[in-house]
Specification:
With 485 residues, this protein is an alpha+beta fold. Helices cover 38% and strands 14% of the residues. The protein is globular and about 70 Å long.
Length: 485
């Protein structure tokens, strides 16, 4: 069987299965063989259920033989981020204390993919508590980038990005609160979509059952084509059973036919989070492609708000979510430290400390500020269809397991704060905007570079379709050279 089959988009594989040009059992075995041959160097698929997957593939083949078709991914084998709940598998989030947290039933997103006809080969690696742009933890170890094993595939959906890029899975689902879908897509050279907040339920992406959906965080797909993102989003999105009593999701269509119809704002770098010259050039290359096709393109259009204050809003809201599970003793230590801070200290460390222990009253004030940001974005997107910007300052960074305070990111030879690049994720997340990352080809060092296409709330189909058409112009996914054969 051709190795290139493993790199075909999930929608194409589903069509081959429908036409019975290949069986689900054959395709599933093909992916299992690739994982067994190549994943030793990557450590992406850390929870494996190969026997069950082959049994489920046989069931899918039998259904097709009877003329039954369950859905758009009937017979297609997937992997999914370890943090999702799946019967008989652990959902540890990389936390040692949760090593034995094995689910007895499928969560909502897993159930929705199964209802669409897919089955699962296993689950992919994450950082501890999903809280890093690298993916390593004491339970499963370190995941490496398929393009260069000395580099990280990103986080927190790092195993997801690596599995899709390496041809271990037809499709993936990750989650994103600080770029955790989009950064692995950028680092690994695949497509990733961060949906508008709230359209994909977070139920089943959890350690403790039945927790309410957190602020900012979303579930979304990673894939080898924008078409696959669109199909996966349709499967994942929509109300829970309780919500469906009263409402249904109806995302608008893309609203344009050709790239030349678009009004495009371009934001290639910013002093608050400088981007490497090569990454900036890639954003501009995409913009130039759109301009050549007739799109209206602006390098100066920006939403009408103070960018630094906007980033502070995101930092505060993000830290409020990420610190919510900290033990009482840790919160008390932070509270004592905050009492000693200079009121004028607005360093990232001071902002994070205050946000960790802020009152609900203060959180509401940040939420008011967020609403002003959202209204500014609303006005911006009345004039512009999409925004092009980087996802991260540089391509995939080297592994670095030192304490966070001791890490840095090298941008054109200059050491920058390790988490500074989260600005490019947060400017989108804070206002609940949808964003699609598409691959634009390798850097001079042979590492992928992705570009974000950001849209107005609920315009998810527009950003995905824009990414699809751009990929047609510049070339989309390409396998890592050492895994293509």
């Amino acid at each position: 069987m051709s190795e290139q089959l493993a790199f075909r988009p999930a929608t194409e594989l589903a069509e081959l299965l429908r036409r019975k040009e290949i069986s689900s059992a054959e395709l599933t075995r093909h992916y299992i063989d690739r994982i067994e041959r190549h994943d030793g160097a990557l450590n992406a698929v850390v929870v494996r259920r190969f026997e069950q997957a082959l049994e489920e593939a046989a069931v899918a083949d039998a259904a097709l033989a009877r003329g039954e078709r369950l859905g758009p991914l009937h017979g297609v084998p997937l992997t999914i981020k370890e943090s999702y709940v799946m019967a008989g598998t652990p959902a540890t989030w990389g936390i040692e204390a949760q090593r034995d947290n094995v689910a007895d039933a499928d969560g909502l997103v897993v159930s929705r993919f199964r209802a669409a006809g897919a089955h699962f080969l296993g689950k992919t690696n994450v950082p501890v508590d999903l809280a890093d742009v690298q993916s390593y933890n004491p339970i499963y170890g370190t995941t490496n980038n398929p393009w260069n094993t000395e580099r990280t595939p990103g986080g927190s959906s790092g195993g997801s990005g690596a599995a899709v890029a390496a041809g271990f899975s037809a499709l993936e689902a990750g989650s994103d609160i600080g770029g955790s879908i989009r950064t692995p897509a950028h680092f690994c050279g695949v497509f990733g979509h961060k949906p508008t907040w709230g359209i994909v339920p977070m139920s089943g992406h959890e350690i403790v059952p039945h927790v309410p959906d957190p602020d900012l965080s979303v579930c979304g797909p990673l894939a080898r084509s924008a078409e696959d993102l669109a199909v996966a989003l349709d499967i994942m999105a929509g109300p829970t059973e309780r919500e469906a009593t009263g409402w249904q999701l109806a995302l608008p269509e893309p609203g344009f036919k050709a790239l030349g119809d678009l009004r495009v704002a371009v934001w290639p770098t910013d002093d608050i989070a400088p981007v490497s010259a090569e990454t900036q050039a890639r954003v501009r290359m995409v913009a130039d492609t759109l301009a050549r096709l007739g799109a209206t393109v602006s390098d100066t259009a920006r939403p009408d708000f103070d960018i630094r204050k906007a980033h502070l809003v995101y930092q505060n809201l993000l830290t409020a979510v990420m610190s919510s599970g900290q033990p009482a003793a840790q919160i008390e230590r932070i509270r004592q430290r905050v009492e000693k801070l200079d009121p004028e200290d607005q360093s990232a460390d001071a902002v994070a400390a205050r946000a960790s222990v802020m009152s609900h009253r203060d959180w509401i004030r940040h939420d008011f500020r967020r609403e002003r940001l959202r209204r500014a974005w609303d006005a911006f997107f009345r004039d512009w269809d999409v925004l092009l910007c980087p996802q991260f300052a540089v391509p995939a960074i080297p592994h670095d397991h030192a304490p966070f305070a001791e890490r840095s990111t090298i941008v054109d030879g200059e050491a920058r704060p390790y988490m500074e690049s989260i600005f490019w994720s947060g400017v989108v997340i804070a206002s609940y905007l949808p964003s699609t990352v598409l691959p634009t080809g390798p850097s001079s060092d042979g590492l992928p570079i992705g570009v974000q296409v950001v849209g107005a709330p609920y315009r998810d189909r527009k950003t995905i379709e824009c990414a699809r058409q751009i990929a047609q112009e510049i070339g989309g996914f390409a396998p890592p050279p050492n895994l293509a054969g």
